[in-house]
Write a structure and sequence with these properties.
Elements lengths: L6 H4 L22 E3 L1 H7 L2 E6 L9 H14 L4 E5 L3 H13 L2 E7 L5 H9 L3 E5 L3 H14 L3 E3 L5 H7 L1 H10 L5 E5 L4 H15 L8 E7 L4 H4 L21 H10 L3 E5 L1 H14 L6 H15 L8 E6 L7 H4 L13 H7 L4
Parallel strand pairs: 2-10, 3-4, 3-6, 4-5, 7-8, 7-10, 8-9
Antiparallel strand pairs: 1-2
Bound molecules: ligand F0G.
Length: about 350
């Protein structure tokens, strides 16, 4: 049993890595695919969860970032830049510091979860708060990198990000022995759904799977441009990671949906929070709110009949719950201090 080498080494022949490039890796990828007994019972499907919050910086962004920063280093960039709702900035900061190059992150002022900000700070990134939303940040990042060629853009508009992220689909097929019938994931800027579809399609084309899944992309109801069919000017949702009104990979997402006979759907903040709690309490997986959108979408699709019983389903949960402690602690029950007494402890557990 050899240890997991990181996704570039694991899937090198399927990735655009130049000869002699020095790989920048934190051993990302190789994340668990957990069976979800409670969700399987509710939906009548065989549900598995791809737990991407167990990547090195706690989100799936590390899959794209190992590629993007490896490329940036190999092509002589002095620094990397990204726009981010938080996770991309945490990941860029970590991989840039590993590579020994600079990193700046453009984040929407006041709208990023505390844990993500802490990560960017700790890994030494320059944090630029922008008066605007993610879409404004991305436009600024694109303009800056177009003007300054020594700064590498590491958002998913950089195609190597998508290449790295497609490996999650490879891992799922490798683990299950075939592609699932349906794949559910949250959608914000739409890079990840584009990447999964590319991964599933490549394996299918090479005969490594017998089918491709129907793709179900779930957006937050207040930030659901793909569901509505047009950009949203002032996106709003508790799931700050997917608070995006004009997804850069719009076309990739639509292709994934159309070619797979899939669907987009919206989940309200209420449904997202309900799924967030269910996942933590029943499946013991603590995710951030944006990730719970995929579970909210799964439950709604099961309820309204879009998802028939008996299928094999994989849901990606994209980010770790520790990134956003504020949301977790919003409605904590008041706990009265107790006396130093075993009977008091047992009664707190409602056992006596
Ligand atoms: N889930 C989480 C936890 C995310 O951080 C993101 C995107 C998504 C889902 C959506 O993925 O954009 O590929 O459709 N976060 C980006 C960021 C925008 O800046 O960290 P997508």
């Amino acid at each position: 049993h050899t240890p997991w080498p990181g996704l570039i080494e694991a899937y090198r022949s399927r990735l655009p890595i130049g000869d002699g490039w020095k790989t920048v890796t934190l051993c990302e990828g190789g994340t668990p695919l957990l069976p979800a007994p409670r969700l399987s019972e509710i939906t009548g499907c065989d549900v598995h969860i791809k737990v991407e919050g167990l990547n090195p910086t706690g989100s799936f962004k590390d899959r794209g970032m190992t590629m993007a920063v490896t490329e940036a280093l190999a092509t002589g960039k002095q620094a990397v830049l990204c726009a981010s709702t938080g996770n991309t900035s945490a990941s860029a900061a970590a991989y840039a510091s590993r590579a020994g190059i600079g990193c700046a992150v453009l984040v929407p002022q006041g709208k990023i979860a505390m844990g993500k900000l802490a990560q960017a700070v700790m890994h030494g990134a320059k944090i630029v708060q922008v008066e605007g939303n993610f879409d404004d940040c991305l436009e600024l990042a694109r303009k800056t990198t177009a003007e300054f060629s020594t700064i590498g853009l590491v958002n998913s508009v950089n195609p190597v990000r998508i290449e790295g992220q497609k490996t999650a689909a490879f891992e799922i097929v490798d683990a299950l022995g075939d592609a699932p019938d349906v794949h559910v994931l949250p959608v914000g800027n739409a890079g990840n759904i584009t990447a999964y579809w590319k991964g599933y399609s490549e394996y299918f084309a090479d005969g490594l799977s017998s089918r491709r899944p129907r793709m179900l992309g779930v957006q937050a109801a207040g930030a659901a441009p793909l569901v509505l069919g047009h950009p949203v000017k002032d996106p709003e949702t508790i799931a700050t990671a997917i608070r995006i009104g004009a997804p850069a990979s719009w076309n990739g997402a639509v292709t994934a949906k159309d070619e797979s006979n899939g669907a987009f759907r919206a989940a309200t903040d209420e449904e997202i929070l309900e799924a967030y709690h269910l996942l933590a309490k029943s499946e013991s997986i603590f995710v951030e709110p944006a990730s719970a959108a995929s579970i909210a979408g799964l439950l709604a699709a099961s309820k309204d009949g879009w998802l028939p019983r008996g299928l094999r389903v994989v849901c990606t949960v994209t980010g770790n719950g520790l990134k956003d402690p504020d949301t977790a602690l919003r409605d904590i029950p008041v706990v009265e201090p107790i006396s130093v007494d075993p009977v008091a402890v047992a009664s707190a557990l409602e056992l006596v």
